[in-house]
Amino acid sequence: MTKLSVNLNAVAQLRNRRNLPWPSVTGMARIVLDEGAAGVTVHPRPDERHIRREDVYDLKALLDAEYPQAEFNIEGYPSEDFLALIEEVDPNQVTLVPDDPAQATSDHGWDFLGKGNFLTSVVQRLRTSSRRVSLFCDPDAGHAGIAAAKATGADRVELYTGPYGACFDDPVRAEAELAVLAETARAARVAGMGLNAGHDLTLANLPAFKEAIPGVDEVSIGHGITADALIFGFGEAVRRYIDVLGG
Question: Which pLDDT value is given to residue 105?
Fold first, then answer.
């Protein structure tokens, strides 16, 4: 079964519109974990426009105290501040993304061939017996890119599914994007790497993704599940995504 990690950035961004403590990031984490999500994901950025540094500490304390079976995944660009935060908080998984701090959201994967030496040094620093490292991966990385990702020592790649998610009104293009994703996924499995996926996955496009790319270890979903939560409530939205994933 593919595990669901709920990205809480959109919850934090809504809270940050006002100088108020709600919606509560830890409160929403409790809801999604109680409904069966395998873990939570956050992407703290330097400007704290959504997840704040204190949220990271609060979530770590919550998971340690109440949900020791749940996984904590922290995404981010490997600046020195980010690396120090990971070493301090010690999440179960760290997902490295090549974002500029000013980006609104992640929109491309790593250049594994060009950044291999840099990524290798970061992976060696962060990877432990209890913490895996995942690298954000373009859908068309192919065998050469995956081989370079594997050489860094990372445990997994996370398929960037944004181009597929953007095909909500174009089924022909969606099918083509799935074929590209499937090829990179096959390369990852051949290389012995774990496989995550995320970005703009929804209740509408997740079934076709799952059929085209079986064996994904984890999907990280934030914007879509938060949008659905406005209609169904967070608990029901989580249950619906887990049902699609085979839970």
Answer: 63
C-alpha to C-alpha distance for 237 and 241, rounded to whole angstroms: 6
Active site residue 43: yes
Determine how β-strand 132-137 pairs with β-strand 218-221: unpaired
Q: Return d(Cα 187, Cα 184) in angstroms, integer.
A: 5
Q: Is 199 an annotated catalytic residue?
A: yes
Question: How confident is the model over 111-130, as pLDDT tens digits?
Answer: 999 999 999 999 999 999 99
Of these residues, 43, 50, 71, 177, which one is catalytic? 43
Contacts (Cβ under 8 Å, ≥6 apart) of 230: none
Domain ranges of the chain: 3-245
- Whether 146 contacts 108, CB under 8 Å: no
Amino acid at 168: F
CATH homologous superfamily of 3-245 equals Aldolase class I (3.20.20.70)
Q: Tens digit of pLDDT for each residue in 48-90?
A: 999 999 999 999 999 999 999 999 999 999 999 999 999 999 9
Q: Annotated catalytic residue: which of 35, 50, 199, 218?
A: 199
| Active-site entry in 35, 50, 71, 75 | 75
